[in-house]
TrEMBL record:
InterPro entries the UniProt entry points to: E3A/B/C-like, IQ_motif_EF-hand-BS
Any one GO molecular function term: ubiquitin protein ligase activity
Superkingdom: Eukaryota
Keyword annotations of the record: Transferase
Organism annotation: Cebus imitator (Panamanian white-faced capuchin)
First-level EC class: transferase
Pathway(s) per entry: Protein modification; protein ubiquitination
Entry EC number(s): 2.3.2.26
Keyword Nucleotide-binding: no
Annotated catalysed reactions: S-ubiquitinyl-[E2 ubiquitin-conjugating enzyme]-L-cysteine + [acceptor protein]-L-lysine = [E2 ubiquitin-conjugating enzyme]-L-cysteine + N(6)-ubiquitinyl-[acceptor protein]-L-lysine
GO BP: protein polyubiquitination; ubiquitin-dependent protein catabolic process
Name of the protein described by the UniProt record: HECT-type E3 ubiquitin transferase
The keyword Transferase appears for this protein: yes
Gene3D superfamilies reported for this sequence: 1.20.5.190
Length: 214
């Protein structure tokens, strides 16, 4: 039989073990609580940031006041970066449509180089960022085209919009920036177009076109 001292010692050891386990469990709970709280705070911060950015984008695309000056290519570029940063195809489809219309409108401006969206391709500091941006925008155009149905009137209008985007930025023939003295830029711009086309082809560009032209 165990002596009283042995029993007391065993009880003490068992109690110490239980206390250690309880402390470990408590520490794990506290650690889990900290992690959960951090995730919640991060989610709330991201959600708030996204709401603020979307509100800024919506304000940007509100109808201009009569007589207001056209937005510069740089302004469009900056707002496009913000939209692409948080872009969700279902939630931001109308914003994306407005972005594309704004870009195409800038390309139609007469004798306003700072307005032409493509003019940023000539900027030493922005060329690579611009190419990356237009690649993303054009591929989103392709993704929308895959979902749209030409027999639906609203869809047919969007199909025209996104096809126009694709045609405009894969062929330099309509770029006003290349007129007159800008003709010297044509080889470089053709190279950029080839780069963009290569990117689109790698992602299945022709399969998208076949859906609407086969």
């Amino acid at each position: 039989m165990f002596t009283l001292s042995q029993t007391s010692r065993a009880w003490f050891i068992d109690r110490a073990r239980q206390a250690r386990e309880e402390r470990l469990v408590q520490k794990e709970r506290e650690r889990a609580a900290v992690v959960i709280q951090a995730h919640v705070r991060s989610f709330l911060c991201r959600s708030q940031l996204q709401r603020e950015i979307r509100r800024e984008i919506d304000d940007f695309f509100k109808a201009d006041d009569p007589g207001s000056t056209k937005r510069s290519a740089l302004c469009i570029f900056k707002i496009a970066r913000k939209l692409l940063f948080l872009f969700r195809i279902k939630e931001d489809n109308e914003r994306f449509e407005k972005l594309c219309r704004s870009i195409l409108s800038s390309m139609d401006a007469e004798n306003e180089p700072k307005v032409w969206y493509v003019s940023l391709a000539c900027s030493k500091d922005l060329t690579l960022l611009w190419i990356k941006q237009i690649k993303s925008i054009l591929w989103y155009c392709c993704e929308f085209l895959q979902q749209l149905k030409p027999e639906i009137l609203q869809d047919s209008r969007l199909i025209t919009l996104y096809l126009t985007m694709l045609v405009t930025f894969t062929d330099t023939s309509t770029w006003k920036i290349l007129r007159g003295k800008g003709e010297s830029l044509r080889p470089a711009m053709n190279h950029i177009c080839a780069n963009i086309m290569g990117h689109l082809n790698q992602h299945g560009f022709y399969s998208v076109l076949q859906k609407h032209f086969s």
